[in-house]
Amino acid sequence: MSSALQLPTPTRSLEQGLRDLDEYGLCVHEAFVEGEQLKALRERLIEQAELECEYGVALLSGQSRGGKTWYGHPEPGAMPGWQGIAGLYNKGRAFIDYLKHPLFAAYNQHVFRKASWHLSAMTGLVVRRGAEPMVVHVDQQFMPRTEVPTYLNCMLCLSEFEEVMGATRVVPRSHLGGYPPQAFSAERGAYNPQPIETVAVEAPAGSVIFFESRTWHQSGISTSDKTRYSLTTLWQQSWVKPMDNIALNLQRDVYASLSEDELALLGFKAEPSGRIECNGPDGVQNTNRKTPYVPELRRGGTARPVALDGMGDRKSADDEAKAMGLKAR
To answer: What total of structural domains would you count in the chain?
Structure first.
């Protein structure tokens, strides 16, 4: 391994983790989750993954989400190398509680330079023998390079991460330059036209591997009989379109069970993007901007609007607009 691929030393210090993120574009925060919480997250993820396979609704691939994927049953006796469990905010209270970890706020505020942020996606990953590597990429590959990263990827190791288990591979300090070159063909999909040297990030269970969205990375090759379990929490600046359409994805019984602070973590807050117009008398709402239900209204028609309890009045709407630097009409 070349000295240019030197990784930061794993740490349990927030201050050191923030310094590592600035210097390397990544850090490994050990013991981020421990004990019963780690056990509960791992067990809930494994149970959900197994049942999605049994019911034929599993997201499967021989590579990763960047490769050929399908929904269905695994072939008998041949589990694919990769499984994704999407929308974990719908799949257990343990995942919502994890989102409230206080160190997430500290890392996000630092990386996004105190800009508003919220959840973009929350996905479980299962990697088995035979998983193939993903193209080297950055998480904001689809947009021009920005001075401040648009996403922060936080990968919780629910099992040990070892190189032979297909541990995530990175290019340290790559966040300081451009994006990795990519090409595309119908046969190969996206690929790197020239080899790119990467290094595997190994870490014990309970660690979180943080890497910002300008850091070059890829999934690795698994040659191990041990299964790798992880939980990826992707945070974003509030102005970016989220990877998951959480306002539409969030199941209504889950929505009804969440506090306003929990809903704000999921993006139910207008600041100023992310505005939600109520789509029914029991529809979802922003935590800071209540709106009436307003259907198509016609003279002589039967459709009627509904002003919901807790809906802001004109004064509160004007105050909100001023806070956003806008002029209310």
So the answer is: 2
